[in-house]
Amino acid sequence: MAVEPLDVVIIGAGLSGIGAACHLKKHCPNKRFAILEGRDSLGGTWDLFRYPGIRSDSDMYTLGYNFKPWTKAKGIADGEDIRTYVTEAAQEAGIDSKIRYGHKVVAADWNSETAQWQLTVEEKGETKTKTKTKTKTIMCRFLLCGTGYYNYEEGYRPQFVGEDNFTGDIIHPQKWPENYDYSGKKVVVIGSGATAVTLAPAMTDKAEHVTMLQRSPTYVMNLPQDDPVVNGLRKILPETWVYRIIRTRNIGISWLIYKYCRAFPNASRKLILKLTKKQLPEGYDMKHFSPSYAPWDERLCVVPDGDLFTAITDGKASVETDHIDCFTEKGIKLKSGKELGADIIVTATGLNIQLFGNMSLTLDGEPLDISEKMYYRGVMFEGVPNLGMVFGYTNASWTLKADLILEHICRLLNYMEDSGHKQCVPVNVNGAVHEPFVDMQSGYIQRAEGKIPHQGSKKPWKLYQNYVMDMISLRFGKVNDPSLEFSSPKNRAKTETQVEAREEVVG
After folding, report:
1. Where in the sequence is the domain holding 228, given as residue range(s)?
2. Euclidean distance between CA atoms 119 and 121, whole angstroms
3. Chain segment 402-425, per-residue pLDDT in tens
């Protein structure tokens, strides 16, 4: 049986993958493409996570796609609304039919003779009695990964002394049980990041009390849900105009806040703590919201309408800053000697970093280690042909960078078609030196060392985490710059239709 040939394969049907397909459909209408999704549903992160209060920590005017306005009233959206938004984008663009669910890419090998990626795909199938997995091969000219940066199978979960002694439930947010009832329960949420500051106030709707237990504090900022400017503009302007205006404004505000924090860390720290203190009960111990690091050494946490501060003020939630000594039968004993009673312990301890959905990458059968490569313009990889990856901002909304990456890839594909080239390879021709991928101290970034690519010391390998500079580079910069080597294979002995598919039924 002949292998199916495609121009582009997109891996992942989440925010990045659906965005990629929409851009391809618009800018590269003649390209044959498919979206391969290992799970059985669309939405990626926003379908996987189902814990109470799940929401974005970025406003939807910047997390939304540049081609689809966000029209709901809430600026900070919950998971269900984001999932609906992504689904609508797929349907409106007519690319939902391109999604192949239950297709997990386990390996990808670049074939230099045919200038194609050969993908080994496990396809799940259902029978009356059991699930069967069929292994098949798909070929494509360009491989685009929208798989995110963490393991969907399991979250980061440190082991604590005495866990077996605890008689209640221990839950990781990534594996939240469906219809889980926590009514009247005492809950301890371990963590201080975006997930913890979301869960703590959200669970106070039914829980007796929720305690957020953190080893060290995080900067937490209030962001109002209702924006009077948005409401006013919607009365007089079309929705697309409002979206563009607010999107531009919010990009500018976010960038100014980030630059101010980096340039004036002491002043920005004092300002953030002053604003936080005003929203907490009088006399509240500010050690729980006073990190030892400077603002934006780690990502800031956002709480819509100050819901965490309100829960603390109302006595429904509290924060403890201490180290865990051990789990006990009825809760957690801290290093200070204090004991926290709990019926439920939620380990909001983070994510396990993983790129490319953990598939095996090879070049002509030789193993490819992406962690040894530099990231070209935040789009492709040093020495690797026809492979793109969507990796958004760490200091702003993910989709801002994703849209720029995808627009650039479409420009690149069109240039290659017009010029007759079959492959392009980023090459370090200007002596750039390898540097860490991103300058942040977040736990998941530190755990990613040895798993993610590097940036370089100079253009086009430098990652600036700056929307304006990336717009200049990716939207308006030359596609055929000296750091890209274009070519076509000299030996075309093996054609698309001559490579035979290997299919195996398992289970």
Report:
1. 163-347
2. 6
3. 999 999 999 999 999 999 999 999
